[in-house]
Structure formats: C-alpha cells, structure tokens
Design goal:
Multidrug-efflux Transporter Regulator, Chain: A, Domain 2, about 5% strand
C-alpha cells in the first residue's frame, strides 16, 4: 500500500483484516485517531490509522479488554510522559499471553498423548 493513501471504511477494514462493524465499534469506543474526512465528507483512514488498528486488534486478540485498550489509547495520546505506564501495561499483557501459551501447550500434550494411544490401537483411553 502506498504511503498516505486515504481509504474509506470498507477498504480500511479489509486492509486491517477486521470487519466494518469492528471499525465502527472502535470508533464508538474512541480507540481510533481523530476523524479525517475527504472532500465528499466521507470518513477516511490512512496508513498510520491502519498500523494503529492492526496493533489494537492484536492486543485485543491477545486478551486485552476494550476498557484496557481505551486506557492504553489514552496513555499513547498523552505522549512520552506515559511511557512507564505503557511499559508496565505491555509487561502485564505479555505475562498473560505467556500463561495462555503454557496452558495451550499442556492441552496439546493431552491431545498428543491420546492420539498416540489411539494410533497404537488402545481404544480404552478416554
């Protein structure tokens, strides 16, 4: 995508790999930068907005709530003075993601064990 390309909501949602509904919801929650409009008064988004929503979406997928995303967004908008709080927020989120990964690894071990037993012909394993 070329720099500073302005996208309308459908194109923006597609580029961000989210739904238009998600974009609108993020707008309602004040998670996206201030509005930009084209000459036809249509809401438009640029590459910076795309980068921002992509990061928000990753954080959301990593388990952050909308309230936490709103807090994070407010901190980013404060600028450099909020860097220590953002670092702490990301450290906490990182811990949560690592815990989720460890849980998934344990689940995978159980599944692998069952597969191994079933493939060996042990139909009694529940």
């Amino acid at each position: 995508m070329e720099n500073n390309k302005l996208m309308r909501i459908g194109e923006f949602a597609k580029a961000a790999n989210v739904t238009i509904r998600t974009v609108r919801y993020y707008l309602e929650c004040d998670l996206l930068p201030p509005e930009k409009r084209n000459k036809n008064n249509q809401r438009v988004f640029n590459d910076e907005d795309l980068h921002w929503i992509t990061n928000l979406h990753y954080l959301r997928e990593a388990g952050m709530s909308i309230v936490e995303l709103q807090h994070y967004t407010a901190l980013v908008r404060e600028g450099a003075s909020s860097l220590p709080q953002r670092i702490e927020l990301m450290r906490e989120q990182r811990k949560q993601v690592l815990t989720a990964i460890a849980d998934k690894q344990e689940q995978l071990k159980v599944i692998d064990h069952k597969l191994e037993r079933y493939l060996a012909g042990d139909s009694a394993v529940i």
